Amino acid sequence: MTKLKNISTLNNWFQNLSEPLIIAGPCSAESEEQVLKTAKQIADLGKVSVYRSGVWKPRTRPGNFEGIGEDALQWLKSVKSETGLLIAVEVANADHVTKAINADVDILWIGARTTSNPFSVQELADCLKGYDKPIMVKNPINPDVQLWVGALERFYKAGVTKLAAIHRGFYPFEATTLRNIPKWEIPIELKSMCHDLPIICDPSHIAGNTEYIPEIAQKAMDLNMAGLMIETHYDPSIALSDMLQQLTPNELGELLNDLVFRSSSSTNDGFESVLETLREQIDSIDTQMLELLSQRMNVVKDIGNYKSKNEVTILQLRRWEKIISTRVKLGKKLGLTEEFVKKLLQLVHKESIQRQAEVMNKISSKDK
Ligand code: PEP
Ligand code: MN
Averaged over 229-250, what is the pLDDT? Predict the structure, then answer.
């Protein structure tokens, strides 16, 4: 199996581009005027190296604007010659790949819906064999890191060495103000699976609304991501797709000026030793936390035995409700949010129920 973990060359192609890599441009290419006007304003900021634009648009329902198609590739060629920006487009099938390569597109990206389908990814990987094209793979719609890394591996196996991942959030099953839930733990897991793979954040598709973009972009930078892809349109109010989440080039400039770029280490005197002391405290607290959880599970087992002998059910709703309300109250006093305490207890409770079920079922099968 192709493992990306120890392939240190994944980063090479990225190093020539500015760091962090800023990709900006409209959700969709709509007209030659819109593509060129937006590109020139973006190029004038002097901070963007890659111009993105959807040419073939994956829409949820047919009948919406599905992109201009091949003709738009010529407009992107003009962007390249007139501004010097590199060009990136989304490809979803072999025909798109051929057309994009013929039009000299610099970077291809794979959309979230396509990454979700291994057949499509394999088809794309097969037709990219022999080309040295940089490929950026968006996360699949569902939070499955294996599917994401699997898509990257398919490209690597086909000889694509210039790879990057794009984190654009995951389909929200719960109500949320964001269009897609970031689930930051997933790109972090991907990074730990492929240390040298650049991961870029797409705050536009996570946010769904311009209001939330700066906060998400800053978080991505604080997590040491390698760059940002931000949808930008010279006049978002007339955009044919993703109107609410596109910034104007001016707003993009402000956002990039306001971003704080922190480095992953510091040369300040004593930085490492202060950090080390704080980390030791965390290590010790984590150890205590796990020891306490283990003690709790042992008590849970005792309760399971006791309930079993007395033929009482595992779930005692009143008791559970009381646990939640008292712990949430205590948590608030201790500066912990209700959401955090509830989630933590739900996890602990689920494990406790499982432990009790094991105890009780063992006892009752022995009794038989
Ligand atoms: C896009 O980048 O415009 C797009 C369609 O994104 P995603 O694949 O992340 O939905
Ligand atoms: Mn879009």
Answer: 97
**What residue has token string 């407009």?**
75
Show the DSSP H helices in the chain as ranges.
12-15, 32-45, 71-83, 94-102, 112-115, 118-128, 145-157, 185-193, 203-207, 213-222, 249-258, 271-309, 317-333, 338-367
Ligand 1 atom having least distance to the Cα of 114: 8
Q: What tokens does 233 get?
A: 């349109």
Task: Quickly list DSSP for 82-129.
Answer: HH--EEEEE--SHHHHHHHHHTT-SEEEE-HHHHT-HHHHHHHHHHHT
Could you tell me which of 39, 37, 12 has the C-alpha nearest to residue 24?
39
pTM of the model: 0.83
Q: From ligand 2's centre to the CA of 56, what distance in Å?
A: 11
Supply the residue whose CA is at minimum distance from atom 3 of ligand 1: 27
Rg of the chain (C-alpha set): 25
Site to probe by mutation for ligand 1, drawn from 23, 27, 147, 231 as the one with most ligand atoms within 8 Å of Cβ, is 27
Q: Using 50, 70 and 90 to split pLDDT, how confident is the model at 1?
A: low
Cβ atoms within 10 Å of 126's Cβ, excluding its own: 12
What mean pLDDT comes out for the span 53-80?
A: 94
Structure tokens at 327: 């712990």
Q: 244 pLDDT exceeds 60?
A: yes
pLDDT at site 368: 46
Sort 296 into a burial class: Cβ within 10 Å, 0-12 / 13-18 / 19+. middle
Q: What is the pLDDT of residues 159-179, one digit of tens each?
A: 999 999 999 999 998 889 999
Ligand 1 binding pocket (C-beta < 6 A) is 27, 54, 58, 111-112, 138, 168, 205
Task: Give the C-alpha separation, 263 to 254, whole Å.
Answer: 21
